[in-house]
Design goal:
The chain is mainly α. The protein is 71% helix and 5% strand. A two-stranded antiparallel sheet has the order 1-2. A two-stranded antiparallel ribbon has the order 3-4. Helix 10 packs parallel to helix 16 (418-450).
């Protein structure tokens, strides 16, 4: 029954994309709404199909089509796959609802159809990646997911920044596929099967694990393979950014988790590597987010931070499991998977709220915003809830998952190896720093965007988004609250007895205090006193005297100047010869894009130089071309024969 329902639901999702393509030359809003309603219906059916698998711990194979030999397209569902499909489906439902209004903001009607069609195929491919029953299905679905998201990133290709983002993303996603293909072929070469649940071969365990780590880690945005992420997530339409950041990154987390759980014995070095990469990604992700004034890039860097948190949990699981601390290992794994769900909820909420702001102000630069809390109150409230959740404030869901990881960290004193224990405690210190910096960053993001006075004409004239564009983030905001307050009950429903604090009484207490204060203030009816705000000696208050994002970030950029290579420049014009009275001036802070300037661009230049040298061999002689083709084909046949 579940397998039939899943097949039907995926067919409905595919039909939504096909319908959008069929109406490409007759783009009408009614057909777009029909496609989105089909998408919503298909995703609701997907949830109905996977809930029994998740609650009853079922294992189901769904064969679809055999091409030849081991090349079979089939699906496999267990609790792990069902959990990630549930994440994808819940977020995608909210994105589809959001898109009812958002898609109509694109001027060109045909482009609206492309956006809808590609989005449907993108969602379908993400579900197929997680449901893949073998490595062949995984690679096919992975490529469909990558290519559909690439075309979504370059949808507004007139802008040079979007084309640059598309190039970065395409190169890195094919780089990811190359390493995944290598590891999948290694597993098949050593075991003779492509089944997704096959344990990795012992004779090539290290090289296979590293191949999967690079392949999945690139798509997840782990540092130093992250550079595509801030470009692509900011260039894509906001509904697509919510999908890419909220759920596409989780397909890579699913892949890493699946490979780990397939192993009978996980090597200790694997856990240490995951812990180191996760810690570096979490800390550097939030540090780079602090300097960003582009709202979507700021959120994208926080995706790197949260992926780092999830990978930290997987690393702790491996380390504790290796030393036989089963309770700590289960807590770490549960914290990592629960944070995967939580990040999907609050990050898609933040990207959709950011989309409302960007549509209203026509800018992604938060320096051009301000005062939006009065003009866009619903968006401000949903963004605030998302900001509190990502900052891990109780009783929201971000706190519930991070407290699990903190508890796991504190068990490190039981580790017998001094080297490993010190490394875990060093990671704990970095984790605490990251948590504080994340809260500081979202004080900046919310305060500069929504509070004070408008800093542009567009912000002053901003209006609240339509019902669908406010309802979808509101649903996710409610889910963030529910996942936090009901976290203990969620784990009990999953049959897991974990020392998770019950946040429901805390939530009721907070709600009671707020209600009492509200009633007290209303009954008190204290007179309101109005007076002038101190304005540094100026007679009128304008937006020029407000605290800016640059001013907020400057102390932190100064503290982390060894990372940013901070350069401060100041130009001043004086009204007198003695230099006592300043007529005007300009200040500038420059930071080094380390990964781009020191890693990616040098590698790109090297590849370009190699390409130029190779192109010199192509002198137009047909005999040489035939010889090159023969050598390439012969080498490919010999390599395939040896490998397979």
């Amino acid at each position: 029954m579940n397998t039939t329902l899943l097949a039907i639901s995926l067919a409905i999702v595919a039909a939504a994309g096909i319908l959008a393509l069929l109406r490409l030359f007759q783009p009408h809003a009614a057909w777009r709404r029909l496609s989105l309603l089909l998408l919503l219906a298909g995703l609701l059916a997907v949830i109905a199909a996977v809930i029994p698998v998740l609650s009853q711990d079922l294992h189901q194979h769904i064969p679809l089509y055999r091409i030849s030999g081991p090349l079979v397209i089939d699906f496999y569902l267990d609790r792990l796959a069902a959990f990630f499909i549930l994440i994808i489906s819940v977020v995608s439902i909210c994105v589809a609802l959001y898109s009812l209004g958002y898609i109509e903001h694109h001027i060109e009607p045909k482009r609206r159809q492309w956006l809808l069609a590609l989005m449907a195929f993108f969602i379908l491919a993400m579900i197929a990646v997680v449901a893949s029953g073998n490595y062949f299905t995984l690679i096919i679905s992975w490529e469909i997911m990558s290519l559909s998201s690439f075309f979504l990133v370059i949808l507004e290709r007139e802008q040079a920044e979007n084309r640059k983002a598309g190039i970065y993303y395409l190169v890195m996603t094919q780089f990811s596929t190359l390493f995944l293909l290598f590891s999948c072929l290694t597993v098949y070469h050593s075991t003779g099967t492509m089944d997704i649940t096959t344990s990795l071969p012992a004779n090539a365990l290290s090289v296979t694990l590293l191949g999967f780590l690079v392949g999945f880690g690139t798509k997840a945005g782990l540092m130093p393979l992250h550079k595509w992420l801030p470009y692509a997530h900011s260039a894509a339409p906001s509904n697509v950014s919510a999908l890419m950041s909220g759920v596409m990154l989780k397909t890579a987390i699913y892949g890493i988790t699946r490979i780990m759980l397939n192993l009978a014995v996980i090597p200790l070095w694997w856990g240490i590597v995951l812990l180191a990469l996760g810690t570096a990604s979490a800390v550097l992700g939030v540090i780079y987010a602090l300097k960003e004034h582009d709202l979507k890039k700021l959120l994208a860097y926080h995706s790197i931070e949260n992926i780092g948190i999830i990978v930290i949990g997987l690393g702790l699981y491996t380390i504790f499991n290796r030393y036989g601390f089963e309770v700590l290992a289960v807590m770490s794994l549960a914290g990592a998977l629960f944070h995967s769900l939580n990040h999907a909820l609050f990050k898609s909420l933040l990207f959709m709220s950011a989309g409302n702001v960007i549509n209203a102000t026509r800018s992604r630069n938060i320096e051009h915003m301000g005062g939006l809390v009065k003009r866009m109150p619903v968006t401000a409230v949903t963004f605030l809830i998302g900001a509190a959740a990502i900052s891990a404030l109780p009783p929201l869901n971000g706190f519930a998952s991070e407290i699990l990881l903190f508890q796991s960290y504190l068990g490190a004193f039981q580790i017998p190896s001094l080297f490993v224990a010190v490394g875990v405690f060093a990671s704990l210190a970095a984790f605490a720093l990251m948590s504080a910096l994340a809260a500081a960053c979202f004080v900046k993001a919310f305060g500069i965007t929504f509070l004070a006075m408008p800093r542009s004409a567009e912000a002053a004239l901003a209006q609240e988004a339509g019902w669908s564009m406010t309802t979808a983030p509101a649903i996710l905001a409610v889910l963030c609250i529910a996942a936090g307050t009901g976290s203990a009950w969620f784990f009990k429903w999953m049959g897991m007895e974990l020392p998770v604090p019950d946040m429901l009484p805390v939530s009721f207490m907070i709600l009671t205090v707020i209600s009492i204060l509200a009633v007290f203030m209303r009954l008190l009816k204290a007179p309101v006193r109005k007076s002038e705000t101190w304005n540094c000696g100026f007679t009128t208050i304008t937006s020029r005297t407000e605290y800016t994002a640059s001013g907020f970030s400057e102390p932190i950029i100064t503290i982390f100047s060894p990372i940013f290579r901070t350069q401060k420049m100041l130009w001043r014009n004086f009204a007198d010869v003695t230099g006592a009275i300043i007529r005007g001036g300009r200040a500038e802070i420059k930071t080094l894009q380390f990964f781009e300037e020191r890693i990616y661009l040098p590698l790109a230049r090297l590849a370009l130089n190699i390409g130029r040298r190779i192109s010199a061999w192509q002198n137009g002689d047909l005999d040489n071309f035939v010889m090159y083709a023969f050598i390439a084909i012969a080498a490919s046949i010999l390599l395939a024969g040896w490998w397979l």
